[in-house]
Amino acid sequence: MKQLSSAQIRQMYLDFFKSKGHKVMQSAPLVPHDDPTLLWINSGVATMKKFFDGSVVPDNPRITSSQKSIRTNDIENVGHTARHHTLFEMLGNFSVGDYFKEEAITWAWELLTSPKWFGMDSEKLYVTVYPKDTEAKRIWLEEVKLPKDHVYEVEDNFWDIGEGPSGPDSEIFYDRGQEFNNLAEDDPENYPGGENERYLEIWNIVFSEFNHKPDGTYEPLPHKNIDTGMGLERVVSVFQNARTNFETDLFLPLIEKSAELGNGVKYGDSPVTDVSFKVIADHIRAVTFAIGDGALPSNEGRGYVIRRLIRRAVMHGQKLGIDEAFLYRLVPIVGQIMKSHYPEVLEQSEYIAKVVRMEEDRFNETLKDGLQLLNEMITAAKEKGAHKLSGKLAFKLYDTYGFPFELTTEYAQDQDFIVDEVEFTEQMKQQKERARAARSNAKSMGVQNGLLTDIKTESKYVGYEKLVTSGILKNIIVNNQLVDKVTTGTADLIFSETPFYAEMGGQVADQGVIMNKSGVVVAEVTNVQHAPNGQNMHTVKILSPLAVNEEYKLIVDETFHNKVRKNHTATHLLDQALRDVLGEHTHQAGSLVEPTYLRFDFTNLGSVTPEDLQKVEQIVNEKIWANLEVKTVETDLESAKKMGAIALFAEKYGDLVRVVKIGDYSMEFCGGNHAVNTGELGLFKIVAESGVGAGVRRIEAVTAREAFEFLEQKSDLLQDVATQLKVTQIKEVPRKVEALQAEIKNLEQQRSSLEAKFANQQAANIFNESENIGGLTIVASQVKVSGMDQLRQLADQWKEKNVSDVLVLATATVENKVNLIVAATPTAIKAGIKAGELIKSISPLVGGGGGGRPDMAQAGGKKPEGISSALKAAKDYLTK
Hints:
Radius of gyration: 35 Å
Number of helices: 24
Helix content: 25-40%
Largest sheet: 9 strands, mixed
Strand content: 15-25%
GO molecular function: alanine-tRNA ligase activity; aminoacyl-tRNA deacylase activity; ATP binding; catalytic activity, acting on a protein; transferase activity; tRNA binding; zinc ion binding
InterPro entries: aa-tRNA-synth_II/BPL/LPL, Ala-tRNA-lgiase_IIc, Ala-tRNA-ligase_IIc_anticod-bd, Ala-tRNA-synth_IIc_core, Ala-tRNA-synth_IIc_N, Ala-tRNA_ligase, Ala_tRNA_ligase_euk/bac, DHHA1_dom
Structural class: alpha+beta
Subcellular location: Cytoplasm
CATH class of the largest domain: Alpha Beta
EC number: 6.1.1.7
Distance between the termini: 85 Å
CATH architecture of the largest domain: 2-Layer Sandwich
Cofactor: Zn(2+)
């Protein structure tokens, strides 16, 4: 067999299908764009959903890709098996209503066996087919000429994920030889397709030919598709004769570096340490790519996955004797391994390493807290004579502190303790159920709409040049049916030519009207979206009858349109300004361009400081006042990249792209509408900055008239303040406020001094009113003080003067709230009176709750009328 590197295998696969007329699609970012059903891109087909369900018709129905993917449903298995990974690459070739079974099968065989390509030994290849798929079996036997004993029928060979496209599949297996056989010869799983190590599945070809309908039935797809998947890591292990995926050039450099950083342990020394090497190599790949694609560590969603992977890798590093931050050092190695297909990883490696290092340092602190908690629980259990830790504690350590269950059990065993694994498993199960319940119930792939997919009408968008045009009405769609006329209600219309912009790239759709030849407005355009074949499809409210093949005048609302295009230009300036101020790591994570405001989401480690926001705002305004020319160039994809244009979501661009260039400052791929020059924007003002998700921030801003009105409102508000402060000029407001703050501070100090004196006077009285109840002395009284701080001062005096065994004080505040404090001496505690338990007992009587230590506790409430009952209950408590 050929000796090929992972980079050569990947490129050869893509080159082969390119030679068969396929378009090579760039790997999409791991963070899904406009797909709420996915946490991560988890397969090659995940990026093809819009093509397979018919919502978009691709320029070329033949597509091939090597798609990076993340799956996290079985993280615990990584390192313990030969082929489980969190990050993997899926090589795939796809047909969207073009070729079908014969081409897919024969091309797969050609790629695998031809000496020009992979050159595998055909005798080592086996396939499985769905028993009812007689056509696929016939092709393998008659066209490919596979021997009958190399074709197996398997009932599970049917790909179905619920509603939407589904169909039988055919899997291809490689016989790695008897030396890999881990089963007895007569074992029922010892065959291609069974659970064994000898026959390795390297490719799955799905024949997507049915619509799985909502009622559970199946019907033939209007357009049949091919969806294939070849795991790069698996096929590389075949070419490099590796026992597992980890002994390949995709992982070994990471494993070798980890060994250098450890305490002398080498890969292969022990099955236990080998697991740690594999976990580290796998997890740092996933973390590096995820951060590079805009995700950041956090306590939720994708961020939680990254945090968990980093912490799991750190723990395994400690098992290898690596006691300091080390994962960040592996990031550039990931970049080197993958640079042929993913050069951006190496380009961003410094930033990615910084994020990983910060997270490692954070975990080292958390690790100390977790170990302290574990030690406290073990000590407490020993005092009770127990030798078993609860599964709830183990789950808390896992969920809050990132401790793998095996770490807790190992640490407990060192102290002669065991951990309740059954209880831990139940806690894990409950967490997974909560996670499933919280997921979106949106369909993972829509049922294919044959009607819209089949509409091939040519429709030209002319809105870049003009906002009024005449067009022939080509299609009327009402209730998913094509009709020739429409007289009332709503409808979707496609014209031969239109000036209406279809919603895309964050820019909202144009609004306007449609007029007939007589000058009568026959419809109001309320929305415009792209039909599957790319036409602008207008959703309209019908005012008068319309008919196909008639000519109409389409008129865009010019005021609405112009305000939108100015705000769209502002988002480009904002995007570049954020990169200038925060760093090149900042990625756009979404946008919305409305006529009255703009919204811009971007990735960042934390909130943006007021100082940085001011810098960003200043930069944008400087570019506006510089009156920079806004030019749009249409060119091919590669030329645009060479120009340095920034691509936001690479998977949506075709061969021809529009590049919007703002002076020499900003250059981005964009199909939207823009100002002619930045001076049109007039003014730019940020009105809000907030967090909207893990590592994602949002800026809301206004331009032009809206920006002026925003500042005018602020000016009016400031003038009102000046009037109330009785100053003649606004510029005097800060000085007046400063003087008032100093006066308030002085008055507060005077008040505090008077309250302290008053509290001392009350102390002299109440401390003389102790009662002896049940052998203990208690002071229980309501006092008139300002709040909890004064109660604590009284408690400190009580402690210094050794007034009684128990203290219970209550006060009603001016806000009609209640503050309670309870204190107990060592004598009282020894007698079984603990402040925390006592306050929990009486605080409900004042409509509140609280707690604390055995010697001191406090509570709040909202029922002052219950104070006397609470004080009486405290005295009764001593008699129990």
